[in-house]
Amino acid sequence: MQITKTTTGPKAWLTGTAMALTMALTAPAIAQESLGTPEEPIELRFLANESFAATWQKTLVPEFNKIYPNINVTIDGVPYPEHLAKLMLDATSANPDYDLLLVDDPWAPQMASIGALVDLKSPEITAMTSDEYDWDDLHPAPLAAGQWQGKQYAVPVRANMLMMLYNKSLYESAGVPLPTPELTWEEFFAQAPKLVQDTDGDGETDAWPLHTFFTRDQLTPTIWQTIMNSNGGKLVDDEGKPAFNDEIGVAALDTQRKLLDYAPPGALGHGFSESLQTFRQGAAANMFMWGSVYKTTAGGSDATTLGEDEVGIQVMPAGSFSAGAHRGVWSLGISSKTENLDASWAFLQWMSSKEGEAFNASETGSFPSRLNTLNNPAEAWAEPVYEAIKNAYDVTIKGEMWRMRHPKSDAAQQILADEVARALAGQATSQEALDTAAQRMVRALR
What we know:
Elements: H1 17-22, E1 42-49, H2 50-65, E2 71-78, H3 80-91, E3 100-103, H4 108-113, H5 123-126, H6 140-143, E4 147-148, E5 151-152, E6 155-158, E7 161-167, H7 168-174, H8 185-191, H9 220-230, H10 247-259, H11 272-280, E8 286-290, H12 294-297, E9 311-314, E10 326-327, E11 330-334, H13 341-351, H14 354-364, H15 371-374, H16 382-399, H17 409-424, H18 430-445
Parallel strand pairs: 1-2, 1-3
Antiparallel strand pairs: 3-11, 4-5, 6-11, 7-8, 7-9, 7-10
């Protein structure tokens, strides 16, 4: 399988159908029937997260079909809490439904360990891979999310990083300097009281310094872990045993608890939706959140009151070791049970190619993983955002800022969600909660 590249640059996809046709598969070793015919098209099914499945179906599939008109791709959306269970059920079924499986950052080891995914660097796939696919162009931080035990089981198609979004207008009205990547947690908390504001002059506070995850949720511990990693702490030691209940880990959880002092009332029960809505309505000066919401928050949707010029993005505040970030990459793999290996790789290779990724980033706001895209933003809004993403990628590698890499990582994250929630609610001290989490995790991972 070979794809002939006829144009380069961040807007390569804009040359239209003529370019698309020249990119069609031409290798004689691949039977044309494996890529479908008008009379007998290939049907592919793809399991994705419901928050962006419909957008991908509407936006990406028609673009892919300009090149491969005889491969029909159906993208099914599933809520995040049900996603892993449905992946596991399909992977172990005698009659699986899906050819392509989208896995969140910590799930790749679990899926790979049960043999659910194809090694994308196997000789069979390599023989079908374009010389211009360029594995080396993929930044190692997001690429590693799809790796396990030396093999590449999935590639990033919607990279994401836990970052700091800030409201420039609220900073300016408070007379506080805009955040920089060098901002420390000490400086952040020193400035926080000034960011408690009454913006309409009615005598009531209507803007707070921050919002983020506080409720019991698998994503809430990523805030604590990011703070811990930025101070040199580790989730596990070199032997894979819990190492987070030390002085650094406890101080980090105390810091996350302190954030509640500067969050809106009721924040203890708030997570993704509540913090996002609060920030989009101009009621929070900062939001520690997955950066992929940037485009729809900075003037890119009807859900926000903020304009593009009002929203900044950068890494989270720095600890003693580095700034903070946390990797959250959606990677796409091929089911080991697919009967359409050629067509599945054709779609996955296109979606994660330089041209496919650039189109996806521009049209849907998905964060890119390729250096080619990151270094050549197609639109003005992307320039500062991509610089922040590159910084975040580098930070995550330096501090190993990702969730546990283990076949039982989901169970480990559930434990952390339980115990971090107890600490935030004041039902246990940070030390007690993390000691309990470490004990439970040893048993769960045994």
